[in-house]
Design goal:
Radius of gyration of chain B: 27 Å
Strand content of chain B: under 5%
Largest sheet of chain B: none
Order of helices and strands of chain A: EEEHEEEHHHHEHEHEEH
Distance between the termini of chain A: 43 Å
CATH class of the largest domain in chain B: Mainly Alpha
Number of strands of chain B: 0
Distance between the termini of chain B: 48 Å
CATH superfamily of the largest domain in chain B: MetI-like
Order of helices and strands of chain B: HHHHHHHHHHH
Structural class of chain B: mainly alpha
CATH architecture of the largest domain in chain B: Orthogonal Bundle
Oligomer: heterodimer
Shape of chain B: flat
Radius of gyration of chain A: 18 Å
Helix content of chain A: 25-40%
Shape of chain A: globular
Bound molecules: adenosine-5'-triphosphate, magnesium ion
Largest interface: A-B, 29 and 21 residues
Structural class of chain A: alpha/beta
């Protein structure tokens, strides 16, 4: 199987707004292979969230074709998982109940889910916090729970919209390291939206660089840093080179 | 060993006993504060009673207009011991409970319907809002004409008055939800029912419970107003009749009994609320 898992061709999205049509995505084409870690970077308003919603089958595309695992894709599917900038935990459910929500919604076996939940809480370093309520956790811990919930129904593709964007620098870095560790173990296909260029380079196989007004895919950067990566790759001269390339592509360096 | 001992001597770890003492102190501080707050509230109550007593017994206001605290107390015993009292209480109680239950149920059902179904919203929402415009008390005389002097008309007024806040709070609660939470549920292929059951309803409960409290006070108000306008039984009817006979002490005692009853149920609803909404918002 050399065919791409996700194949988007000439995707466009136009919103009808009070001030007239707004082109959020303009003619975006790309392919994503199974097991790839892709980041979307670009300034605010360039259509990253819009593209992610279309990939999730939550938002209708205005034009173009989108194929996932060989089939046209335009509706939510249980083999996709979404994570957001805020944890979106339900405050009336304990940590464990939150992690088990996808399993309940999708009608998965309760016994398997119970075992998997403990495993996942272990994996994200929240062993022993299963019976706490979200209000009792710090922001970083809540994102860990959200990460465990993302993996609960074992989705094939993870769609993450700035999942660590609201965290402080230290927590963000820890979460990046843990996400990589989990990704190396599970090798899921990831589409990861971020504003943070360093984060994108550290995590990704390829980076889709987007520019706004209208939202276009400016270019795709191959990250040829060796794996498995530890934080010391940030000292690699190649790391800064890639960061610099992306900055130039975005037009932030003059 | 010796090194350990030296370190201990220089830098004693927070000792369990110290922590216990700290917690004990905090608890005492809080207890003292609570005691002070209670004393302040009680003191103010006594002050008002005293002012009332002096004003009425000192001849500043006529006893016919405002009876003294003692007279009110005696009137309360007299009213509660009278033959006519309990049958009238029973009538009002039934009216209030029916009005409250029906107002609550219709508010919740229509609120859920309007929030969850676009066609229901398009069809009835404009009318529900328009019907809200006139003060509902103007309906009281008409309802007496339509439904008679008995309980039905009082229940109808109570329902009309208590319905809207329950409806609006249900609708608001179901609508004020984090858009990302809705996205999450959709991404998990949750349909309308599962989204309602696992996200929208629990998310709406705090606002809905506030509606229940409003609903309760308005149901009581509706029934009493209805009994003022036209009735042959009930607490409102008694108040009206006693006022007419210039038995102001009797009126006072009925108002106090009614207030106490409303308050007790209100507290009960608040207790229920603390049970239903056991979590803290994020
Ligand atoms: N539902 C909508 N209706 C109208 N316009 C929208 C809607 N959603 C997004 N847009 C517009 O589409 C454009 C792209 O939005 P999008 O949220 O995808 O950007 P983004 O790259 O995710 O930005 P950010 O980094 O700030 O999250 C923006 O100009 C936005 O105003
Ligand atoms: Mg976004």
């Amino acid at each position: 199987m050399s065919a791409a898992l996700i194949d988007g061709q000439k995707l466009s999205k136009v919103y009808a707004t009070a001030t007239g049509p707004l082109v959020a995505l303009d003619n975006v084409s790309f392919e994503i292979k199974e097991g790839e870690f892709i980041s979307l970077v670009g300034p605010s308003g360039c259509g990253k969230s819009t593209l992610l919603s279309i990939l999730g089958g939550l938002e209708e595309k205005s034009d173009g074709t989108l194929i996932l695992a060989g089939k046209h894709h335009d509706a939510p599917r249980p083999d996709l998982g979404m994570m957001f900038q805020t944890s979106v935990l339900f405050p009336w459910r304990t940590v464990r109940e939150n992690v088990r929500l996808p399993g309940i919604i999708l009608g998965l076996s309760a016994k398997q889910q119970a075992a998997r939940c403990d495993e996942l809480l272990d994996m994200v370093g929240l062993n022993g916090f299963g019976d706490r309520y979200p209000a009792e956790l710090s922001g970083g811990m809540r994102q860990r729970v959200a990460l465990a919930r993302l993996l609960a129904h074992d989705p094939r593709v993870l769609l993450m919209d700035e999942p660590f964007g609201a965290l402080d620098e230290f927590t963000r870095e820890t979460m990046n390291v843990e996400l990589l560790r989990i990704w190396e173990k599970t090798r899921k296909t990831v589409v990861f939206v971020t504003h943070n260029i360093g984060e994108a380079v550290f995590l990704s196989d390829r980076i889709f660089v987007m520019t706004p007004r209208p939202g276009r895919l400016e270019g795709i950067i191959e990250v040829d840093l060796p794996r498995p990566r530890r934080t010391d790759v940030m000292r690699d001269p190649r790391f800064s080179e890639l960061v610099f390339d992306i900055r130039r592509m975005l037009g932030v360096d003059h | 060993m010796t090194i350990q001992a030296t370190v201990d001597m220089i830098e004693p770890a927070p000792h369990a006993a110290t922590i216990d003492r700290f917690i004990e102190n905090e608890r005492k501080k809080q207890f003292r504060k609570m005691l002070l707050n209670r004393a302040l509230a009680a003191g103010f109550g006594i002050f008002v009673l005293l002012a009332w007593h002096i004003a009425t017994t000192g001849g500043f206001v006529h006893a016919l207009i405002i009876p003294s605290p003692a007279a009110t107390f005696h009137a309360t015993l007299r009213v509660m011991g009278a033959d006519y009292f309990w049958p009238n209480v029973w009538v009002t109680l039934q009216e209030i409970l029916w009005g409250f239950a029906l107002g609550l149920a219709s508010g919740v059902i229509l609120g859920v319907g309007v929030a969850m179904f676009e066609t229901v919203r398009a069809t009835i929402y404009p009318y529900l809002v328009a019907l809200q415009a006139p003060p509902k008390i103007v309906l009281a005389p008409i309802f007496i004409t339509w439904f008679g002097f008995d309980m039905a008309s009082k229940i109808a007024i109570a329902v009309v008055m208590s319905f809207f806040p329950m409806f609006l709070n249900t609708l608001t609660g179901l609508s004020s939800v984090d858009p990302n939470a809705v996205k999450l549920m959709r991404s998990l292929t949750a349909g309308r029912w599962k989204t309602f059951r696992y996200l929208l309803l629990p998310n709406a409960l705090p606002i809905m419970m506030a509606g229940v409290k409003l609903c309760w006070t308005l149901a009581v108000l509706g029934v009493i107003v209805g009994e003022f306008v036209g009735a042959s039984a009930g607490i409102g009817y008694l108040i009206y009749a006693m006022n007419f006979q210039l038995d102001i002490a009797g009126v006072f005692s009925l108002i106090i009994i009614l207030s106490l009853f409303t308050l007790i149920v209100y507290q009960l609803i608040e207790w229920l609320e603390s049970r239903v909404i056991f979590w803290k918002q994020l």
